[in-house]
Amino acid sequence: ASECAAGKRDKMYIFGDDYPTEDGTCIRDYIHVDDLADAHIRAIKYLENNPSDIFNCGYGRGYSVKEVIDVMKKVTGIKFEVEVSGRREGDPAVLVSDNKKIKSSMNWQPKYDNLEIICKSAYEWEKIMEWG
């Protein structure tokens, strides 16, 4: 969606709108890149005194593809074309992380748990990035 708003893609594709979700599109736990980077830094520090482990990193709440598109259009004021195509094989309807373990083990606390902030930040990044 950010690439479409920044004019880098002609249209946004939605892969399936017949999932058993409120609006029929997949739900994902989108995370701000700064929160993800912070989690990685904390993981490196964690490994200094602890054995390797597995952690889920996310906000524990999901947004549908249509919600992300709507919010991207809202925060940028840019309309872009959206086309629904068929489902991708193996795509589950909902993927949302359970972040309790990373919060308790690494004291990770997300700072940008807001879809409008995530979309605006992604759009601002896309505007300055060159495609090669």
UniProtKB/TrEMBL annotation:
InterPro entries to which the protein is assigned, alphabetical: NAD(P)-bd_dom, NAD(P)-bd_dom_sf
Any single biological process term in GO: galactose catabolic process via UDP-galactose, Leloir pathway
The NAD(P)-binding domain, residue ranges: 4-118
SUPFAM superfamilies: NAD(P)-binding Rossmann-fold domains (SSF51735)
Entries under Gene3D superfamilies matching the protein: NAD(P)-binding Rossmann-like Domain (3.40.50.720), UDP-galactose 4-epimerase, domain 1 (3.90.25.10)
Cross-referenced Pfam families: GDP_Man_Dehyd
Family in the record: Belongs to the NAD(P)-dependent epimerase/dehydratase family.
Name under which the protein is recorded: UDP-glucose 4-epimerase
